[in-house]
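queue> holo job accepted (manganese (II) ion)
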Amino acid sequence: MARLSAYNAKRDFGRTREPRGRIGKGKAQRFVIQRHDATRLHYDFRLELDGVYKSWAVTKVPSLDPATKRLAVEVEDHPLDYGTFEGTIPQGEYGGGTVQLWDRGTWKSQSENPPSRDLEKGQLKIELGGRGLKGGWALEGRRDETKPGRKTRHNWLLIKERDAAARPGEPDTLLKEDTSVKSGRTLEEIAQKTRKVWHSSKAATTAKRAAPARKAATKPAAKKKSRARKRKAKA
Ligand code: MN
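queue> job finished
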């Protein structure tokens, strides 16, 4: 479980409906991009590799213009179950905000080397078959950014290759894709529906009211409640 321990440590599964981290077994190499309306809107780019999703938070909409490179900050590996997750992470929890399945498909490496080695070297060239992201792409590792007292950020660049799917001079063209590849919903529709369901339970009300300052005080109560509800549901 070592590869998903960072993922699990950051989340309270009594409060978020994101999946628990388990190493998966998959044949096709999948990729997903989840548009995540958190503190700042970003695009979580995930590539299936060795039973987990290698993950990067792309700070702007992926660019179909090869000349416009996007910063992709490496984040913790995610479980393969995460690839179908769409919904709202409660405010005050890690990554609080709405998640939309924005693109998905399969990927393959363009090189002969194992992708894990290319990733270590900071140079991965891939082919993507998604709704918005197609053809050749590259992930290039950049020098890490370390500030005193802060965690090292592993910065990469996500770059479109020059091919038939490229759109030179149109870096923001994918902004027009604003619906889910899973449900067809916009971020707003996902947020509203989730809130409706979420509101109907007591735990939901607690989650919404819990301001960061009160979090420590309300958290154990909310946890107890959700465990109690689970017991009730089983009974
Ligand atoms: Mn995210």
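queue> The pocket of manganese (II) ion is lined by residues 36, 38, 42, 44, 57, 95 (CB under 6 Å).
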